[in-house]
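ok so I'm stuck.
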Amino acid sequence: MSEPLLKIEGLEAGYGEVQVLWKIDAQVGEGDIVCIVGSNGAGKTTLLRTISGVVPATAGRILFKGDDLTKLRPDQILERGIAHVPEGRRLFRGLTVRDNLLLGAYLRRDNAEVERDLHFIFELFPILRERQKQDATTMSGGEQQMCAIGRGIMSRPKLLMIDELSLGLAPRLVERLSEALIEINRAGLTILLVEQDVMTAFEIASNAFVIETGRVRMHGPTKVLAEDADIRQAYLGG
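replied:
not stuck anymore, here's the structure
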């Protein structure tokens, strides 16, 4: 059996003296879509922030393609191939949609390929082509999420991490974004998705990790977890 693309072993992290993550073990296989679900405050966002180097790990290891990334800076982790689409989009006010997208490629020097990836994003999200000269922060929430995902893709990562895909968005937009993630995955990109809407996450992902109070409570194929009585009662309305 091949080694997973991302492997997390005994990971612990937090903010100052407040510990949030406790001995997290998880993995993401190459080419998979994996989701991390759980209630608000369970530690999902902290886990992504620790993987991307924004929050330092206090124990454990983060292995990517077999290499230990645990002590690397965020820019070094991005260079290794992990892109993070943060909760709340975090687009740059005053910059156009096109410029926000190109910021995702700031470490790249392959200009022709950058243009090719930009074309791919405009094909994936045609509204961004129409709005490419508009201040990105003046778009709707769904359009901003498209731009944030596109910016992540522009770094040409091997793993794209997305924090709260559906937060504050209408169901129709969530469905469109979900379809886009499946399309991106089919194009060869591995995805790790944090999502509070468990039903949406289970429809997109093939495997899931359920986090409660900073610990992995359950994990397995989403089709199996969706039939679990405890999961259904806690997250799927019975």
